[in-house]
Amino acid sequence: MIKDGKKGMLKEDFTKYKLKPAKELKELVSGKENILVLSCNKCFKEFVSIAEPEYQEAAEIVKSAGKTVSGYIPVDYLCNQYLTEKILNKYKNEIENSGAVLVIACGLGIQTVSQLVNKQVLPAADSVWQNGFHGVTLSAEKCGACGECFLTSTGGICPVVDCSKGLVNGPCGGAKNGKCEVGKHRECAWELIYNRLEKQGRTKNFIDETPKLRNYRRNNFKLVDEYVKLIRAKRSEGFYGGLYPVELKELTFDIPIEVFPEQDIVIIPLSQHAGLACEPLVKKGDKVKKGQKIGETAKSPITAPVHSSVSGEVIEIAPKKHAVLSAPVLSVVIKSDRKQELDVSVKPAGTVDSLAKEKIAEIIKDKGIVGMGGAGFPTAVKLKSPKPVDTVLINGCECEPLLNADYRVMLERPEELILGLRLIMKAAGVLKGIIAVEDNKPAAAEKLKALLTGDSSITVETVKTKYPQGAERMLIKRVLKRDVPLGGLPLDVGVIVNNVGTAYAVWDAVYNGMPLIRRVLTVSGETVPKKGNFEVLVGTQLKEIVKFCGISLRSDEVLKTGGPMMGVIQQDLEAPVIKGTSGIVVVKKHDIVESGPDCIKCGRCVEVCPMELKPTFYVLLAKQGKYAEMENHGVLNCIECGCCDNICAAKSSIVEIIKQAKKTIREKKK
Amino acid sequence: MLITKVKTKEELLPVLSGRVLVIPCLGCSQSYFPVEEFNSLKDELKSSGANLASEVTFDYMCREDFTERRLEIYREQLEAADTVLIFSCGVGIQTFAGLIPGKKIVSGSDTFYVPGFPGFTPSEHDCEQCGECRMGLTFGICPVTACSKGLLNGQCGGAKDGKCEVDKNMACGWQRIFERMNALKGSDKALKEGVQIRDYKKSSL
Amino acid sequence: MKLTDLTRLGKFVVTSEVGPPKGINLDKMLHEAEYIRGRVAAINVTDNQSSVMRMGGLAACKVLKDKGFEPVFQITCRDRNRLALQADLLSAAMFGIENLLLLTGDHIVLGDHKDAKPVFDLDSVSLAHCVKRLEEGFDLAGNKLDGEAPKFCKGAVVSPCAEPLDPQLFKMEKKIKAGVEFFQTQAVYEPEKFEKFMKRVKEFGVPVYVGIVVLKTVGMAKFMNENVAGIHVPDSLIEELKKDKEKTKSGQTGVEISARLIKDMKNMCQGVHMMPLGWDDKVPKILEMAGV
């Protein structure tokens, strides 16, 4: 209850432990030789330095006792057993050769280490007691977690924690001048309670209540044990980290795919993929047909051509707003003649059985097929793996909240999807195909399974819903139990991952000869009047869709392309839909709170990061401009899934910080 | 790490008066929030005649400046409410009540203690912050939390088949200490010396 | 008379126990005590046994003492913090109660006030230490006591058949270091295990009084095997109880088994502690048959 008058941070110290006195430490290490020191960097504090400040002091004391410090391993969040185990595995020899392990941490860290190392563990610190729990944001208020909340009758002031005796039926006779008998630093909670109840005119109600008895059994082993098991199981389900965001899939879950009307103008950016941008094959004034190739480049194998999504006339070739890239991108602007005349190249090429492996790969490249989950990696490149590949995995998870585009394709166009997968398998020379579907889409899984009965080459795997399961690394871990190395690719573990939309586009390209000029996307959000799943022509401007769906943003909302978690905020609706646009969603703005620290080191981001990184470090290091250190801490491995951002108790925009840092690091390398 | 459980209809109905504004705090929902129980409690309250007039969502209610900001955003709903029914841990409720002390608030949930410090995934380990860590003697297993009685000087007679008398699923902390000691080929010499007595001054006030 | 003095004189010490009533009528308890008058050296008075609330042991001890019995004041750490424990110890000394049995106590959740706050401020070891300090003339905080310091005979418990045994032996040793002078044991049904136990504790040099709980029914034996820590009733005894239902019902089998156990073990230890659980009337017969 001691505040310094400022909002947000408090003078109160939330530190979890302090070093034991020198005398005690010396006693602790007596009789031990070669002491290995492990330290955790305290949590719940304003985060200012990664190094544990108390290590030096501890090391000096150990040395002054005539002992050798055989090594020092700083491990932040020691209590995170999963990550700590991985780190300690790297130091097996150091641990083995040490006489004892001295741990500078709170009791949780000490117990975690004891469980992981086969050595006597010596606690170098004493935990600092807190009267109750301060929530996750360093609040002045404390909760005793008594399991029988009394706050209703005490006007929201806790008698269990704030009264030194934990009295629940009124004040004792020990208060003087509003201060508790145990010390003048402590206010009498019951005087505060009385004043508040008086203010609300509720003192009489309190007097009339029957006397309360504490029930100390409510926090019992069974209850606590069950919660711990339940929550821990959920956390580590399938892969480390991740979230269970509110999905709101129901908003468009049952809405069939509707063809979005062709507009007068389409804008086709010459870069809609990972890799080199295309060069225009047309010029202003040229007539183009639907499906005609209008851009490509031969300068790099990592690229994908682009095609016109309408028939009409090129009216401009100029840099235009892009939905993903921040700088304008050279784009072909076409005025539709509404005739929808197909280019001569748009014709069926054959079937999965009639076409040779190489021919399929060629079509996939020629028709501009790219990953349609967002990253836009050219599909043809994946097919030419320099490493042996045994499985093609179709990602039907669609783990982003709100989005249902892939689900509708699986449900409405399953035969095409399966043929698309077969084509990819044949082109890659792979015999095993898996379609992974999250368990929140049972109808899609059932439908696909029914179509695949008697076919052992393709299986449908239902996986428990968890975000970001659709990320390649997580999906491979979940379905195939293989670990993609950090910085590596699915190919490194023999897998090609493709999105549902991509497989469908492959079918469209082969069986109809249609290049990737249209895609299914979801338009959704609680306040969107006309929500739905639309098949939209690439190049259709966002503003047309916004108009069609009647979207008008409220002051606390933003519009994103992609999903709510990883989508890109669109300020300007001039940008067009591109191959990777999986949705247009209206979501609540990220809370921005100027006051308070950027990081309170609660460690939640570390718990949820599926790439097993420590996002909290990046917030600090970015502020200090230490980009090289960020790179050492693996920032380039971040997949920008947004879990850290979503859970941040300090409401820092962590993903934005990471994106900027990555950009800076990459620019420096150039 | 704190866990909440919703209170019963019987407990809440008598204290809900007038127009009720319902506020769930979802800041910690990634760890746990009893969504189903919350929804069905609301239905029960409504069908029993409680006037649940509106509902708004908070997160990290425990942080004063976030809560203050939301109080501004939802001023209309707040002003219209006679009672605010909050589903949050005790920290959140107190923070909220402290910011509008004139408003009658009702706690919709009970907060339970779960091992591990707030903010983290619940842990199989616990630390009571006793302020006088003895794990150097006890081979890295905490006698204060791993023993149901918090005994510091050895096992009581209540363990059976290695399990504690309070629950057959709870391992006897002192037996664990001895097992660990044997695994490490350690000695109980230091443990035998002297009598351990807790200094509660280090964990109070 | 202190129990250890009897041992020192070379006597085989026999004790039994009674439980105070849930109420203020002591007739039944005294009636039970009368059965064993003259047959035992002392009678233990339990302290909210099994965490079930009863009349306080101190008052019951005082009444027994007044009636010419030698009480053993059992005192647990479950319900009292260090202030209350010391206060009760001084009260006991004032009443002339000499024998103490110092226990940690069953957990609250095992009893009839499951919602109550478990105290466990001290444990059996620190309680023994605390008594020693009082005997030295100081309270636990180091303050000097006024006048003469109390003098007690300090007992504690141990489970000879606990699995594993090492933690129990460790604790026993620690209790002895803290000042414990004698041990009454948890019920023993396996003399061979007890023999092994006694061999290991011989070096400690403190008297051990073996615990005997009279087996009443097959169900009771099975229940204890299932639920009671440190107790194991071997199958052979369960078979024996099963064999003659009438004999078991009348208590005869239980008496025979108890007497046989005492006979088997009396030369291994320094005494026997009877826990008749209401069958106090059978104690004299058991002792007679066992020859003690």
Describe it for me?
Chain A has 4 domains: 17-127, Response regulator (Rossmann fold); 257-346 and 517-588, no CATH class; 357-512, NADH-ubiquinone oxidoreductase 51kDa subunit (Rossmann fold), CATH 3.40.50; 604-669, no CATH class. Helix content of chain A is 29%, strand content 16%. Chain A contains 22 helices and 23 strands. In chain B, 30% of the residues lie in helices and 18% in strands. Chain B has helices spanning 9-12, 35-47, 64-73, 75-80, 90-99, 143-146, 173-183, 189-192; strands at residues 2-6, 19-24, 51-55, 83-87, 104-107, 109-113, 163-164, 167-171. The mean pLDDT of chain B is 89. Chain C has 292 residues and is α/β, with parallel strands linked by helices. Chain C is 41% helix and 15% strand. Chain C has 12 helices and 8 strands. The mean pLDDT of chain C is 95. The B-C interface holds B 148-161, 164-166, 174-175, 177-178, 188, 191-192, 195-198, 200 and C 104-107, 109-110, 118, 120-126, 128-129, 140, 157-159, 162-164, 166-168, 170-171, 173-174, 177-178, 186, 227-230.
Strand content of chain A: 15-25%
* Count of beta strands of chain A: 23
The counted number of beta strands of chain B is 8
Walk across the major sheet of chain A and give the strand order. 7-20-19-23-21-22
Domains of chain B, number: 2
Mean pLDDT score of chain B, rounded?
89
Largest sheet geometry of chain A: 6 strands, mixed
The CATH architecture of the largest domain in chain B can be given as 3-Layer(aba) Sandwich
What is the ordering of alpha helices and beta strands of chain B? EHEHEHHEHEEHEEHH
Q: Determine the mean pLDDT of chain A.
A: 91
Structure keywords:
heterotrimer, A: 670 residues, alpha/beta, Rossmann fold, 6-stranded mixed β-sheet, 22 helices, 29% helix, 16% strand, globular, disordered N terminus, C: 292 residues, TIM Barrel
Give me a quick take on this structure.
The complex is a heterotrimer of chains A (670), B (205) and C (292). Chain B is α/β, with parallel strands linked by helices. In chain B, 30% of the residues lie in helices and 18% in strands.
